[in-house]
Amino acid sequence: MKQRKLEILLEQVKGFDSPDVTLEQYATSAVLAAKMLHFAYMKGDITDTVYDLGCGTGILAIGAKLLGAKKVVGFDSDEKALEIARNNAKILGVDVEFICCEISEISGYAHTVVMNPPFGAQAKGSDRPFLLTALRTSDVTYSIHNYGSHDFIKKFINPAVITEWYKTSFQIKRIFKFHKKDVEQIEVEMYRIIRQ
């Protein structure tokens, strides 16, 4: 499947009804989700089992299944978001398992983790449990982080290594009262991490 076709399909994914600022529930855009997933697909990493950590309304998990992953499991601590995710998967006609649990409770094994963890705007270091769980449960991780995180992530994940990373943009729509613009583009970094 071409990246543009995946993006068009993922535009059908419904976002949060009432996002929780403390959980940093910012929807991943179809453009960014398709970019990450197609990159992983071209690397041969959308195969076997894929986990989506902090899946929210399921855009990355659903996209992984659309690209042919054998089994996809999305994990989130917000049951309301998971209800939307299950409905999104049904609309797009894919079989994705969604599990409500805390990030530290995730077990099992996936070849690949895809995730857009909290950036730490509400609670510093909130991306760390996601990185630790990804490294514990998979061989390959694709993750989005604040621009300028490279040195920290490189040290934090050691002995795992960053094989590729690049700068891209993340679109944030006005969803909370403190937002000043209807849409804001922020710079982020996308990482491919391999467990050693």
Give structural notes:
The chain has 196 residues and is of the alpha/beta class. The protein has one domain: Rossmann fold (3-Layer(aba) Sandwich). Helices cover 31% and strands 28% of the residues. It has helices at residues 3-10, 30-42, 59-66, 79-92, 128-137, 150-157, and strands at 49-53, 71-76, 97-100, 110-115, 138-146, 161-173, 183-194. Strand 4, helix 5 (128-137) and strand 5 (138-146) form a beta-alpha-beta unit. Helix 1 (3-10) packs across helix 2 (30-42) and helix 2 crosses helix 3. The mean pLDDT is 91.
Characteristic key phrases:
196 residues, single chain, 31% helix, Rossmann fold, alpha/beta, 28% strand, globular
What is shown here, in short?
With 196 residues, the chain is of the alpha/beta class.
Structural class: alpha/beta
Biggest sheet: strand arrangement:
3-2-1-4-5-7-6
Q: What is the percentage of strand-forming residues?
A: 25-35%
Give the biggest beta sheet.
Answer: 7 strands, mixed
- How far the N terminus sits from the C terminus, by CA atoms, comes to 30 Å
Radius of gyration: 15 Å
Low-confidence stretches: none
Total count of domains: 1
Q: Architecture, CATH level 2?
A: 3-Layer(aba) Sandwich
Q: What quaternary form is this?
A: single chain
Order of SSEs, N→C? HHEHEHEEHEHEE
Q: At the third CATH level, what is the topology name?
A: Rossmann fold
CATH superfamily: Vaccinia Virus protein VP39
Shape designation: globular
- The top-level CATH class is Alpha Beta
Helix content: 25-40%
Q: Give the tally of β-strands.
A: 7
**Distinct helical segment count:** 6
Q: Kindly report the average pLDDT value.
A: 91
